[in-house]
Amino acid sequence: MPVRRRNLGRMFALLISMEWIVIASQTGARIFRRRPYAHELELVDLLENPKGRLRKHDINSDKPGRGFSPTSVSRHGYMASMPPDQAAALGFAREIAKKLDQGRTHNSYDHLVLIADPPMLGMVRGALEQQTLHRVLDVLPKNLAWAKPHELPVKLRSLFERIDRERPLRHVG
């Protein structure tokens, strides 16, 4: 009988386990909920980044500031450390990471799957806390921000099947 209880514990762990599927781009992010071995997705949250749709010169229309050099009497212009569109994308990636970190602290999910184009994926992963990174099951460097919600299960079927096949079973209790 102990073997049977242990198997029931594993099955129970799978039933209560929850994944968040994050589909992000510079213009927005959608967070979906998925139970293991299921292909249906339920929208949890929608984050929008209006600056992601603007052109570089529209994001920061002000000219860089000017200042005096302490060693001379001449003035010089300040240079931006990164282009404005990249700075806006990095700020949005930090906002996504904050939402995912909050979800982890509230035990809203057990595992994460991150899907974004490669630059955005790198920015989001770089902004996540270490404990949240440990919950990442898989990443897909692909831009699916344009996909409609009903199309996603079909487009992500092979990813879900691979995740479910390789899923680590955790014992609860």
Could you walk me through the main structural features you see in this protein, from its secondary elements to its overall organization?
It is a single chain. This protein is α/β, with parallel strands linked by helices. Helices cover 40% and strands 22% of the residues. A 5-stranded mixed β-sheet has the order 3-2-1-6-7. A two-stranded antiparallel sheet has the order 4-5. β2 and β3 form a beta hairpin. The radius of gyration is 21 Å and the shape is globular.
Write a brief structural summary.
With 173 residues, the protein is an alpha/beta fold. 40% of the residues lie in helices and 22% in strands. It has helices at 2-16, 56-59, 84-105, 118-127, 130-133, 152-155, 157-166, and strands spanning 19-24, 28-34, 42-48, 66-68, 75-77, 111-116, 136-141.
Number of discrete helical segments: 7
Q: Major sheet: order of its strands?
A: 3-2-1-6-7
Biggest sheet details:
5 strands, mixed
Question: Which CATH top level class fits?
Answer: Alpha Beta
Query: Mean pLDDT score, rounded?
Result: 78
Characteristics:
173 residues; alpha/beta; Nucleotidyltransferase, domain 5; 5-stranded mixed β-sheet; two-stranded antiparallel sheet; 40% helix; disordered N terminus
